[in-house]
Amino acid sequence: MIDHLRNFNQARFDIISGPVKSGKSNKLITLIRTFIMDKKKLNNDLLVVKHPEDDKNSRGRISSFKKTSIDAIEYKSADEIANEITDETKFVVISGIHLYDKNIVSLCDSLRESGRIIIAGGINLKSDGTPYGSMDQLLAKADNYEIMSAICNYKNCNKNAYRTQRIIKNNKEIFEPRCLVDYEFEGRPDYKPHLIDQEPSLETIVGPMFSGKTDLLHTRYYQITNKDGIAIFKWMGDSRYSTNKVVSHDKDDIPSIDITNTDDIRNYLEKNKQINLIMIDEVQFIKGSYELVKELLYKGYKIILTGLKRDFRGEPFGYPNSEISKILTLATEITNMYASCYRCEHPATESQRLIRKNGIIQPASFDDKIVVVGGKDLYKAVCRLHHEIKGAPPNRYSGRFNKIKI
Ligand SMILES: [Zn+2]
Ligand SMILES: [Zn+2]
């Protein structure tokens, strides 16, 4: 959670996400006040902006339901925000980030690359259940998360609401928070009867290589008493060989089910009705994982996943069709893990790929083939400032912002 990261003082992108009425603005305001203001670096180094369509009742301010508010400049495009960044700007706060054009992804990327800290609030999903604006890519590009929930106001539910439902009341369009059970969208799968008494949830454990994601998954496994209800799926590669659901044992002696595609998981669950909690390690490798996770979550399962959200180039894993990015928009909790940068010991958020070419170890190039003939791969965890990608294509804002130190 964001509050605990005060010593993470460079090149960082935090996202506060959730449905309508989940207290995102309140969280933004609290963070500005505690995290930033107590560093006494207010004046010119803080830029607070909001999209004009975000909370239209509060012009020129970010306001929370707790009646706190803070001044914000309204800009309707990423380019307009970029124009306001000066050499002094160190912190950029963006409210309503889901409403911005797609350039916002490049902007946040470039700001982070320059060493700045970005804190943004946005709605994860549209009312049709698909990612809002560029939220999928933004979540993959972020380093730290706070997933907020509201209270489901469907009948007398009062459960945690992670979704936004669009309804028409008296010819007026309104948006209400809904829990995962009461949320409706076209094509919603039927709830599994044996899961009726549990609240579905999706925790995604993300972070760079060597950040301990699988260890945390194992910890979660040990924390649960009813182990009969758990199924752990392990991806076995895109290979021809089929294990016919052989139960293997890894070094921690946790039983897992080998899979080669998403139907292996569906078939296993059809045959094993006692399962209520699904764990999947390294989800980024599984084709069709977004559709699968979406389906199982709305059927009522609890799900815990680990995954690499960014590749060695810093792009969303699988880009331009990153499934893990879209999975992040569905999450009810995102746990970000950090490694330690091998060069400066700051929290490492990136996976650096190094290759040995002609005996020299060097950063891999953006378009290096996955297997370099005669080369040997090395991976290290690094912070954003020590992440090197040779030949990375420039984006819209490349070279625009001076490098800063906070
Ligand atoms: Zn509900
Ligand atoms: Zn570093």
Can you tell me about this structure?
- This protein has 406 residues and is of the alpha/beta class.
- The chain has 3 domains: 2-186, Rossmann fold; 189-337, 3-Layer(aba) Sandwich (Rossmann fold); 340-398, Wheat Germ Agglutinin (Isolectin 2), domain 1 (2-Layer Sandwich), CATH 3.30.60.20.
- It is 19% helix and 27% strand.
- The chain contains 8 helices and 24 strands.
- It has helices spanning 24-36, 78-84, 103-113, 135-141, 213-223, 262-271, 289-299, 323-330; strands spanning 12-17, 46-50, 61-63, 69-71, 73-74, 91-95, 117-122, 144-147, 150-151, 160-161, 163-169, 172-178, 201-206, 230-235, 247-249, 255-259, 277-281, 302-307, 333-336, 339-340, 347-348, 350-357, 360-363, 376-382.
- The strands form 7 sheets. It has a 7-stranded mixed β-sheet, with helices on both faces. The chain has a 6-stranded parallel β-sheet with strand order 5-2-6-7-1-8, with helices on both faces. Strands 23-22-24 form a 3-stranded antiparallel β-sheet, with no helix packed on it.
- Helix 4 packs across helix 8 and helix 7 (289-299) packs parallel to helix 8.
- Mean pLDDT is 90; it is low at 240-250.
- The site of one zinc ion (ZN) has 8 residues, from loops.
CATH topological fold name of the largest domain: Rossmann fold
| Major sheet attributes | 7 strands, mixed
In the predicted model, the low-confidence regions spanning at least 5 consecutive residues are 240-250
Number of helices: 8
In the CATH scheme, the class of the largest domain would be: Alpha Beta
